[in-house]
Structure formats: structure tokens, C-alpha cells
Specification:
The chain is an alpha+beta fold and 164 residues long. It is built from 3 helices and 7 strands.
Length: 164
């Protein structure tokens, strides 16, 4: 399975909900490795299927100080009441950073690239990256979590950049 370019805001695939993976075969080991490589090349900390035009529920992450992780058919089953603000960026919204409020911790269930189920309790940056990538599977970009005025300013800036 080849990985093309990382899609950017304006591509309609980024706004679509990803489909579940029906069978996790050996090709997912290769796909996950390619996704991790593309994420590192883009200097990102996460990459979801829809960002590469793959409309499947898969994402990879690599938080500093952690090993790369693969999440297939993930479900966030619990979120903390405590909310925190943190600056986020995205490979699909290049050059834009904004503070986003999210739960400080989550519990997620998923399968890895070898088809093994797992549950993970995550806090801090790990939790934030997982929530950001999970949003991509739902067709949501981090800019959607900003006020309408902030989002419109960002979209106008991106449009201006495209024309330049």
C-alpha cells in the first residue's frame, strides 16, 4: 500500500468519517511502518489514515520519549473532567498553530498493527496527540475546535497563502 502526499485543509476527504478496518492482516504492519515514516518526514507527532487519503480508522503517533504507536479501530472510552489548553499544529493545516482545549486524560481501546487489542490510559501530551488523531477519523480538524472568528482568520490566512 503506497502512501501519497499528506492532504491539506480544503481536501474533502479530511472532512469525511473513516470506515472501520474489517480485517487486520499483515499489510497493516507495512502500512503502519510507512505511516510512521511519513509522519517523521513531515516532522509531525501523529498521522491518521484520512490525512493520506486512506479512509480507514487507523492512526500512528510518536510522542517524545515514547515509542511509535499504532491505533486501529480506536474507541475513546473515557475522558477526564479536567480540561487543558495546549498549542496544536497539524500536518494537514501546515504552518498554523493554535491553543485548543481538550480533556487532560483519556482511556482508549484499539488494536495494534498485528491485530492485538489493547487499552491505554494516557495523559499529558500523549493524550492530546491521540485525541487530535482520533478527530481526523471523525472528519474533524483541530481548527474546528476553535472559535468561529479564530477559525475564519486561519482559513483566510491559508487562502491568502495559496494565492501567493
Amino acid at each position: 500500500m503506497d502512501i501519497g502526499e499528506i492532504l491539506t485543509v480544503g481536501n474533502e476527504l479530511l472532512r469525511m468519517k473513516a470506515e472501520p478496518v474489517n480485517r487486520i492482516g499483515p499489510e497493516y504492519v507495512t502500512l503502519a511502518a510507512k505511516m510512521i515514516e511519513a509522519m517523521h518526514e513531515g516532522k509531525g507527532v501523529g498521522l491518521a489514515g484520512p490525512q493520506i487519503g486512506l479512509m480507514k480508522r487507523i492512526f500512528v503517533i510518536h510522542a517524545e520519549g515514547d515509542t511509535p504507536r499504532v491505533f486501529i479501530n480506536p474507541s475513546i472510552i473515557e475522558t477526564s473532567q479536567d480540561m487543558v489548553k495546549y498549542e496544536e499544529g497539524c500536518l494537514s493545516v501546515p504552518g498554523i498553530w493554535a491553543e485548543v482545549i481538550r480533556p487532560s486524560a483519556i482511556r482508549i481501546q484499539a488494536w495494534n498493527e498485528k491485530g492485538r487489542p489493547f487499552t491505554l490510559d494516557a495523559g499529558g501530551l500523549l493524550s492530546r496527540i491521540i485525541q487530535h488523531e482520533y478527530d481526523h477519523l471523525e472528519g474533524v480538524l483541530f481548527i474546528d475546535r476553535l472559535s468561529e472568528s479564530k477559525r475564519n482568520r486561519i482559513l483566510a490566512r491559508l487562502e491568502k497563502r495559496k494565492k501567493a
